[in-house]
Specification:
Elements lengths: L1 E4 L2 E4 L4 E7 L12 E2 L2 E2 L1 H13 L4 E5 L12 H18 L3 E5 L3 H9 L4 E4 L8 H8 L3 E4 L17 H19 L6 E4 L8 H9 L11 E4 L4 H7 L7 H13 L2 E6 L2 H15 L3
Parallel strand pairs: 3-6, 3-12, 6-7, 7-8, 8-9, 9-10, 11-12
Antiparallel strand pairs: 1-2, 4-5
Helix pairs in contact: 1-2, 2-3, 3-4, 8-9
Bound molecules: 9-methylguanine (9MG).
The site of 9-methylguanine (9MG) has 13 residues, from strand 9 and strand 11.
Length: 281
């Protein structure tokens, strides 16, 4: 299974790691890391991207708008200023697929022009103009399921059958994308762990991950350091590595082809061990 991301071809015959690079001042686990004197320092962000590539990340996911529960939206100008300079710097310096975590049409367009190879949209291209912007770039898109919006999504989420409802939503967004001109071969599905879901919803989705996408559409799973781990194990954000690694491996065993993580080196080791066990030479 391969996916063409601009000038790169991503081989998904085995699970790969997407390293998180949040250029927000306020993300839940790595917010503010690339700020100096109150301003975004592109060089600090580039150094972190470089480190993640050295550690084995196949994709760097650059995001300028926080999507943690309770986060408030920001203006397009603000988001452009947090994302595009970092995409330009990585494009100039590193040979890696750059994914842009955005729902904003202008950010989709300008990031693609700056060298991004993948659009990662937690709103599955539902923001007005996002679908058209994504079509125009020709890039692949990760369609994620979210119930509600970041500022209200964790207020008592309900489902009749969470697996069926998430799968149906992703299928419906697939059809909208195909009708607009984004081929099936350019789509990635993501159940959106923690986005309008209780811990039990998240666990049920993980148990049934392989049911959420047809076999030719790759699945992305983002579980790293999420608050579910904090609640289930009683761990603060900086104590969630073991829980994150266990969930990454469980997701890979259930069919995830892309793991979105903060701790790249450790996750790459876990996936390498899994591959050695599951694919004896
Ligand atoms: C931006 N972002 C935060 N969590 C995420 C997740 O679980 N999946 C995707 N695709 N993006 C996410």
């Amino acid at each position: 299974m391969k996916i063409i991301c601009g000038k790169h071809t991503l081989d998904l015959s085995h699970p790969v790691v997407m390293g998180v690079l949040n250029t927000t001042p306020d993300s839940f686990s790595d917010g503010g890391n690339y700020y100096a004197g109150g301003a975004l320092d592109t060089d600090l962000a580039l150094r972190r991207a470089e480190q993640m590539v050295r550690e084995g990340a196949a994709i760097i996911d650059v995001g300028g708008e926080s999507t943690r529960p309770g986060a408030a939206p920001i203006s397009e100008q603000e988001e452009l200023g947090r994302v595009v300079p970092v995409v330009e710097a990585i494009t100039a310096e590193l040979d890696v697929v750059i994914s842009v975590d955005t729902s904003t049409p202008g950010v989709i367009r300008e990031s693609a022009a700056a060298g991004a190879g993948l659009i990662n949209d937690v709103r599955a291209l539902e923001r007005p103009g996002a679908l058209e912007a994504a079509v125009a770039t020709g890039l692949p898109v990760c369609l994620m399921h979210m119930r509600g919006q970041p500022d209200n999504m964790q207020r008592d989420p309900h489902y009749g059958d969470v697996v069926a409802e998430v799968a149906a939503y992703l299928r419906e967004r697939q059809k909208a994308c195909e009708a607009a001109g984004i081929a099936r071969q350019r789509l990635i599905f993501d159940p959106g762990f923690g986005f309008g879901k209780t811990d039990e919803h998240n666990l049920t989705l993980l148990r049934n991950l392989s049911e959420l996408a047809p076999s030719d559409i790759p699945l992305l799973a983002g579980l790293s350091r999420k608050s579910m781990i904090g609640r289930l194990l009683g761990r603060e954000v900086d104590q969630r590595l073991p829980g994150s690694l266990a969930l990454a491996m469980l997701a890979a065993q259930r069919g995830a082809r892309i793991l979105r993580v903060h701790d790249v080196a450790a996750t790459v080791d876990v996936l390498r061990m899994q591959r050695l066990v599951d694919n004896p030479q």
